[in-house]
Write a structure and sequence with these properties.
Largest sheet of chain B: 6 strands, mixed
Number of strands of chain B: 12
Distance between the termini of chain B: 33 Å
Strand order of the largest sheet of chain A: 1-2-3-4-6-5
Helix content of chain B: 25-40%
Largest interface: A-B, 33 and 32 residues
Oligomer: heterodimer
Distance between the termini of chain A: 85 Å
Order of helices and strands of chain B: EHEHEHHHEEHEEEEEEEHH
Largest sheet of chain A: 6 strands, antiparallel
Number of strands of chain A: 16
Strand content of chain B: 15-25%
Structural class of chain A: alpha/beta
Shape of chain B: globular
Strand order of the largest sheet of chain B: 3-2-1-11-12-9
Shape of chain A: globular
Strand content of chain A: 15-25%
Structural class of chain B: alpha/beta
Chain lengths: 492, 247
């Protein structure tokens, strides 16, 4: 059987037909495509048009996004929309719009997605500077949403106020994945464009250098956003030319407390750490950033927090000189879901008789920490509340039990010799220890729980142990440390 | 429709059986054999039987260069191991099987997808696709948006737009990859029976035509048995040895 390419129309001609088809099939109110009834045009931007649509099988409000493709020169719009068509249907969870349909590119490209209630963060810019309380809340919510996105192997790469919706329930939702990168899919943008892709004020230094594989780029852009909300000033201005983008590689921003003296030290610490030009000096993961927003008291304040002026021009120019040789280098992607800087939570039982177990637990944790130099350790102890006792906070000698537990917990962890920013201590007061541990692991994006199990006695098996409930219900890896048989302290 | 794509089985019974067992859990609607059923491995008859069985139930079977050579007995352009193995294979096959291999089609089209053993721009030339410019030549040689081929024994995925050169992506296993957009895609399959990407596991893929997604799979199989049969048949030892290292 012979194969004659001449009998087949050439690629170019086919592409021409496709493009003509796109122009021909203009959408209008009242028309239907793939079962979606077009109801109303709700937004028309430079890149895409948004339509309110309806489908008999879908009860939630949905919108259809249609790219503006009028001629073949809009390569960035086409490729951006192709990326979004690849990525959005793969995402799930509360921090992204649910995808209900993808249009065939040859006929009519579109994306149908959940309509997100609420306002974008753009609406908050005129209110800047925001209060510390609100900044912390927004930071925590956006960082939490980033944790979820990065866990799904996606880096947003265009974090800015207009791309973050705040739902009425307070959750942050990302929209517009046209510049995003899925670490397991081909990156059509990196391969096709020789210029940095991003939004001028927010783009990270790595993106300026055309590296689109680092989840910490989103942490940088979130830092820009928070700086703006904290001061009403953009940390790196509004660069108009590509050459101006490189400035953020060597010139540090004015410390935000200089512009807004009411900003707490911990927020300046967080914001400036996000804005470090070298990603290694930023938060290693969005989870660690979210952790600081939800535990402002345990943010370790460094020189960054107290800084009141920028680095001297001489220092900046030295940095610039050092960067002269640094050029664009697309890098191999790292798996984003296997956090190299995990949050490890250790549940320590400090009751009498549990000393040997606590020691074994410490040895185990020490071993884990040696392999994970960027891990963050949250030491948790449960102060079990007896619902019948009101005066729980004081023991028989009148000491504050809560404070005493914290002291004991710190003593337990002292042999690790961890720097202050890598370890935190929490005494949780709760009637149900397992529930308290599970809740903590969940709300703090903990990657691994390490917990000791008391001896495996028949009674405990009958009643159900704390550790087995944590194993069953925690949202992450759980390691149970047990004493070898016969090693239990408690004698029967 | 979910299509299972199997290329370059090369007479490796254990590898084919492992892939078919894996595919049995993938809700496959149609099997597509992208050529080179025989050559190198010790079970050509079994492979032809099994493939023809599936063909009777709707599978598409395409010709590869080894099938052509074993069918016709034309061994030009083959290296010495391949030639040795093909001469051996030809002796194993009866007249009917040889005629079957010779009569296989070179390509198959389903909607905007083309299935072919090697370079689509000239299927019978048996060109290898090893880099972006080979891929571009193949993609420009067809008006179909998607091409699925084998022949190289290394999984690769290329895509290109009209104005830009083709770009290579090394696909991750078990991850559905959408072949979307107005760009062209060329999905080169790994080999079922003789992988050469330093991974000894048998390779095959599933393409979902509704979702337009391809998923590359690797399946562990009983290499020891496949290799022992190659030794027993007194085929060149290297053909067995390379199975263990996938090279």
């Amino acid at each position: 059987m012979a194969f004659d390419p001449k009998t087949l129309p050439q690629f170019k001609a086919v592409q021409e037909n496709r493009r003509r088809a796109l122009v021909r099939e203009a959408l209008e109110v009242g028309s239907t495509i793939d079962g979606f009834l077009i109801e109303e045009k709700i937004h028309s931007g430079g890149m895409a048009t948004l339509w309110r649509v309806k489908h008999p099988d879908i009860s939630v409000p949905i919108v259809m996004k249609v790219p503006m493709i009028l001629d073949g020169d809009d390569a960035a719009i086409i490729v951006g929309f192709e990326m979004e068509m690849m990525i959005l249907p793969r995402l799930s969870g509360p921090h992204v719009p649910k995808c209900f349909g993808v249009g065939d590119y040859a006929r009519q490209p579109y994306l149908v997605m959940e309509h997100i209630e609420g306002e974008s963060l753009l609406a908050r810019i005129p209110d800047a500077p925001l209060s510390a309380e609100e900044l912390t809340k927004i930071g925590a919510r956006v960082a939490t949403a980033l944790v979820d996105l990065h866990r799904q192997n996606v880096i947003h790469l265009d974090i800015k106020p207009s791309n973050i919706m705040m739902k009425p329930n307070g959750e942050a939702v990302f929209i517009d994945f046209g510049l995003s990168r899925h670490l397991q899919l081909p990156d059509l943008l990196e391969e096709e464009f020789r210029v940095p892709m991003g939004t001028g004020p927010y783009i990270s230094p790595e993106q300026v250098l055309r590296n689109r594989t680092d989840p910490r780029s989103d942490i940088f852009s979130l830092g820009v956003l928070l700086y703006h909300l904290a001061t009403h000033v953009r940390p790196f201005g509004f660069p108009q030319a590509q050459s101006q983008l490189r400035k953020r590689l060597w010139r540090d921003p004015v410390p935000p407390r200089k512009l807004n003296p009411n900003l707490p030290l911990y927020l300046q610490e967080i914001i400036l750490r996000c804005l470090e030009p070298n990603p290694d000096e930023r938060y290693p993961t969005a989870a660690q950033l979210a952790f600081d927003f939800t535990h402002p008291d345990s943010v370790k304040l460094t020189e960054r927090a107290y800084r009141l002026k920028r680095a001297s021009l001489l220092t900046a120019w030295k940095k610039r000189f050092e960067l002269l040789g640094v050029n664009e280098q697309p890098k191999q992607p790292q798996p984003a879901h296997l956090a190299p800087a995990p949050i490890i939570m250790v549940a320590v039982d400090l009751s009498d008789g549990m000393e040997t177990l606590a020691e074994t637990l410490r040895e185990h944790v020490a071993r884990v920490l040696t392999t994970l130099p960027d891990a963050r350790l949250a030491c948790v102890n449960i102060l079990k509340l007896n619902r019948l006792t009101i005066n729980y906070a004081l023991d028989q000698e009148g000491r504050n039990i809560h404070v005493q537990r914290l002291v004991d917990l710190k003593k337990w962890a002292r042999p690790f010799g961890l720097a202050q920013e890598r370890i935190t201590f929490h005494v949780l007061e709760h009637a149900d220890p397992a529930a308290a541990l599970i809740e903590y692991a969940q709300s703090n994006n903990v990657d691994q729980v390490i917990i000791g199990a008391r001896a495996n006695r028949a009674l405990r098996r009958f009643l159900g142990s704390v550790s087995s409930q944590v194993v069953a219900e925690a949202p992450c890896t759980v390691t149970v440390v047990r004493l070898p048989a016969g090693g239990d302290d408690v004698t029967l | 429709m979910r299509l299972a794509l199997l290329a370059d089985i090369h007479g490796n019974r254990e590898a084919l059986d492992a892939c078919l067992a894996h595919a049995a859990r993938q809700k496959i609607d149609q099997f597509i054999f992208l050529g080179d059923m025989v050559g190198y491995g010790a079970d050509p008859l079994y492979i032809i039987d099994r493939v023809r069985d599936l063909q009777a139930k709707g599978a598409i079977v395409l010709m590869g260069n080894h099938d052509e050579a074993a069918g016709k007995g034309s061994l030009d352009n083959m290296n010495s191991y391949a030639r040795h193995a093909l001469e051996w294979t030809r002796i194993q096959l009866d007249e009917e099987s040889r005629a079957y291999l010779q009569a296989l089609p070179l390509y198959h089209v389903i909607d905007d997808a083309l299935f072919v053993h090697a370079d689509a721009s000239s299927p019978r030339a048996w060109n290898y696709i090893t880099n972006a410019s080979d891929a571009e030549r193949s993609m420009r040689g067809t008006d179909r948006r998607l091409t699925f081929c084998g022949h190289v024994h290394r999984p690769q995925l290329y895509h290109m737009t009209q104005q830009k050169p083709a770009v290579l992506f090394i696909p991750q296993n078990n991850t559905p990859i959408p072949l979307v957009g107005q760009r062209k895609w060329l999905a080169v399959q790994g080999a079922v029976g003789q992988p050469r990407d330093d991974n000894p596991d048998a390779a095959y893929s599933v393409f979902d035509t509704m979702k337009q997604e391809i998923t590359y799979f690797r399946v562990a199989y009983d290499i020891e048995t496949a290799a022992a049969k190659i030794h027993a048949a007194q085929l060149p030892q290297i053909l067995a040895a390379r199975l263990f290292i996938g090279r």
